[in-house]
């Protein structure tokens, strides 16, 4: 059983429902035609995805009851801010954050430039405290299935770009559905990200078929298929996909044009905004540490992400991939990534922030530290082992056994006091 518990639908107001988890209430988008007040439901990413019988729900909730309150106490304890000596400048900026005042650009710059041990610790602790006060201990764990490493694009940073010599694979529709079914039925995932290169072999019709079948499993279908045209996203929404991950990669239009030949930032942003307007739960963000990145770029990245009003922020460090034009570039330091997570939390209290698998690759403690610096969501790679090494968008990707990964992630979340209630909207 993975990380999700059912809640009781206690109120319905038009398309928004209120789900109760042991007295804690979360808003959800009702996307299920037959629900009524009193039903026990699963929600993911703020979307109601399935209904289960009362008997089954009560059985599950019984096993969670004590643990749920224990987790809450652990999280509250870990989210306390310790009194440590810190710089005056930092204290006055954090005071502004506490008063819900928007930070000025120069204040964001000075947060980004922090380097003292105590200052960094206080910034991360404050971000974690805000996360706890805003979202409680809810934490989403989504599965990610990388179903094709064929890509028609040539992004300079990416290890599966078209021009790279690489063993390519495409999972058949049946293989994709079978893998998804295993993740849902055997491991209990309630949300799956279907990710691939920009691979038009998967026509709209093929993708519709996949989305319909995966949606039938009673989960949130999350697309991450890159720059596709508007009709594709519209039809996949109609087929049942309700979330989409599409990063803008960098807010610097020149860097974008250079690193993603043949495409522009404006074009990408237009599709991102369109996806949001269609009603998709939007996950977006950027790659941190691309060559030539300035601190102004980082602040612009964070502010652009916020302006797109995503339901989830997804940003990861740039990790060089062999055989790409950027193979010799340097790696980002872990603290640079943690600062971005914390800064995003401080500038957008309501945000849901993902600890990405790229960040986990950068540092063994990244998951834990990211979750303690403001993040509240994770992904677990469910790609079949035989394909995983070929989905080499960057080097040194972690390739641990799925069941082991699920077990370790749940143990980590328990140790941090995080519960599998939905993040809500
Ligand atoms: N083709 C789709 C989805 C797969 S790539 C798309 O481009 O949206 C998913 C993400 O991997 C990209 O958005 C990019 O942000 C990230 N990525 C690619 N190469 C990377 C690298 N070398 N280091 C870190 N992240 C990388
Ligand atoms: Fe293709 Fe996405 Fe990699 Fe770009 S980042 S080369 S679109 S898989």
Structure description:
It contains 15 helices and 15 strands. It has 425 residues and is an alpha/beta fold. It has 3 domains: 7-76, SH3 type barrels, CATH 2.30.30; 88-133, no CATH class; 136-415, Aldolase class I (TIM Barrel). α5 runs parallel beside α6, α7 (230-238) packs parallel to α9 and α10 packs across α11. It is globular. The model has no long low-confidence stretch (mean pLDDT 93). The site of iron/sulfur cluster has 10 residues, from loops.
Write the layout of secondary structure elements.
Layout: E1 7-13, E2 16-21, E3 24-29, E4 40-44, E5 47-52, H1 54-78, H2 88-98, H3 105-112, H4 117-135, E6 140-148, H5 173-185, E7 191-196, H6 204-215, E8 220-224, H7 230-238, E9 243-245, H8 253-259, H9 265-278, E10 281-284, E11 287-288, H10 295-307, E12 312-313, E13 316-317, H11 334-347, E14 354-355, H12 357-362, H13 366-371, E15 377-381, H14 385-388, H15 402-415
Parallel strand pairs: 6-7, 6-15, 7-8, 8-9, 9-10, 10-12, 11-13, 14-15
Antiparallel strand pairs: 1-2, 1-4, 2-3, 4-5
Helix pairs in contact: 4-11, 5-6, 7-9, 10-11
Features:
globular, 425 residues, 3 domains, binds S-adenosyl-L-homocysteine, alpha/beta, binds iron/sulfur cluster, single chain
């Amino acid at each position: 059983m993975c990380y999700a518990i059912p809640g009781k639908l206690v109120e319905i107001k038009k398309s928004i429902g209120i789900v109760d988890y042991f007295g804690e209430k979360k808003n959800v988008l009702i996307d299920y035609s037959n629900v009524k007040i009193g039903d026990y439901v699963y929600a993911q990413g703020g979307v109601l995805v399935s209904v289960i019988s009362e008997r089954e729900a009560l059985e599950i909730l019984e096993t969670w009851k004590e643990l749920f309150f224990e987790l809450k106490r652990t999280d509250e304890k870990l989210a306390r801010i310790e009194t440590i000596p810190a710089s005056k400048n930092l204290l006055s900026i954090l005071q502004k954050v506490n008063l819900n005042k928007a930070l000025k650009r120069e204040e964001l710059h000075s947060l980004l430039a922090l380097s003292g041990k105590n200052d960094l610790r206080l910034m991360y602790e404050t971000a974690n405290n805000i996360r706890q006060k805003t979202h409680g201990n809810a934490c989403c764990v989504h599965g990610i299935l990388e179903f094709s490493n064929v890509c028609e694009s040539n992004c300079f940073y990416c290890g599966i770009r078209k021009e790279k010599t690489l063993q390519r694979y495409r999972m058949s529709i049946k293989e994709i559905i079978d893998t998804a079914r295993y993740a849902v039925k055997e491991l209990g995932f309630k949300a799956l990200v279907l990710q691939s290169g920009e691979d038009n072999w998967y026509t709209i019709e093929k993708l519709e078929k996949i989305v319909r079948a995966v949606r039938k499993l009673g989960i949130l279908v999350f697309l991450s298929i890159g720059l596709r045209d508007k009709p594709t996203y519209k039809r996949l929404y109609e087929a049942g996909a309700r979330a989409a991950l599409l990063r803008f990669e960098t807010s610097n239009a020149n860097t974008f044009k250079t690193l993603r030949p043949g495409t522009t930032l404006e074009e990408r942003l237009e599709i991102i905004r369109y996806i949001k307007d269609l009603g998709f739960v939007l996950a977006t963000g950027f790659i941190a540490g691309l060559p030539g990145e300035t601190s102004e770029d980082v602040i612009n990245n964070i502010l652009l992400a916020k302006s797109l009003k995503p339901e989830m922020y997804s940003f990861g460090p740039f990790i060089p991939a062999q055989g790409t034009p950027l193979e010799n570039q340097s790696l980002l330091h872990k603290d640079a990534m943690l600062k971005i997570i914390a800064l995003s939390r401080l500038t957008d209290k309501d945000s849901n922030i993902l600890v990405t698998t790229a960040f986990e690759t950068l540092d063994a403690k990244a998951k834990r530290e990211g979750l303690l610096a403001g993040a509240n969501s994770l992904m677990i790679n469910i790609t079949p082992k035989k394909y995983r090494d070929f989905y080499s968008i960057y080097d040194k990707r972690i390739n641990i056994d799925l069941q082991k990964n699920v077990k370790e992630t749940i143990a980590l979340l328990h140790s941090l006091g995080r519960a599998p209630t939905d993040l809500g909207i």
